[in-house]
Write a structure and sequence with these properties.
single chain; 155 residues; alpha/beta; 2,3-Dihydroxybiphenyl 1,2-Dioxygenase, domain 1; 4-stranded mixed β-sheet; 3 helices; 16% helix; 33% strand
Length: 155
Amino acid sequence: MLSTDGDISPIGPQNSMKPFLEHLNMTSTDVDETIRFLLTAIPEFSIRGEGGGEGSPAQRWVHVGTEDSYLCIESRGATEKGPHKPYFHPGMNHMGFVVSDGEELAKRMLEAGYRQGATYLDHPHRHRYYFFDHDGNEYEFVQYFSEDPRERNEY
């Protein structure tokens, strides 16, 4: 909240909440294919809303996620991925999602024909599975085996 003198002051305890990522906006060469990828990976997601077209810079946009957070997938007419090289050029490298059953997720993704990246099953408190969508975007899916943040965040 901004005060009248331009200083930023924190929201008081009565209105405080734990910060979280509310949404991520990304452009896709095929919105429907990105939606298929996300709903295959996380069937608990749903389409929250969609729009675009006349009067909007996006030809089409769709919000996919939960009541609390979502990915905005939009089309602006691109037919191929741009020159960004993950882990080399500045920009997004991958998105991470917490899931309840990583092994089942990996099975669904492989059966649907998605390309698997790295898999890390050697940590006692988490397993991580990586998959790529049709545009080559990398997604990490992590299953935690501990409620203790110290164990979950043990590197």
